[in-house]
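From the pipeline queue, job 12 of 40. The input is one protein chain; the requested action is below.

Action: predict structure.
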Amino acid sequence: MYAFRLFLSVCLATIFVAAAAPAWANTDSSVSLAPIVDLAAPYIVSILGALVAGLLGWLSKRLNDWLGVEIEGRHREVLHSAALTGLERAVSALRSRGEEVTFDLKSPVIAEAVNWVMTKGAPDAVARFGLSPADVEAIVRAKLMRVIGEV
């Protein structure tokens, strides 16, 4: 970083001296900075443009990272809420048909809850996380004790 500053200082000093030399040759005491500005302006504009572009890129990345986390968190909340709702709906549907609510590995309650989450409850969240029916089933099973406690 120090070497870059030194190099930049030397370049600017050289530009200043080279551009102002004809003006110093005049006998009057005024010095025109127009040659320096004319010589350095394109470089200054290019450097400022690159800095602004870099700053905008950095801000865009930060905003995308922040919004990405927010969106992912919302999808996760929706997915877990849908799993609970799917279980509650499945238990309610089985009870309304007069069936006994049992929980084993092939329980119709879990199958119905998984189907509801995948199709109606949170299909966007399932797609966002790339979940398979087995993944959704694991989430539903994790929520099962919560529903059992309420039933």
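Job complete. The longest helix spans residues 34-96.
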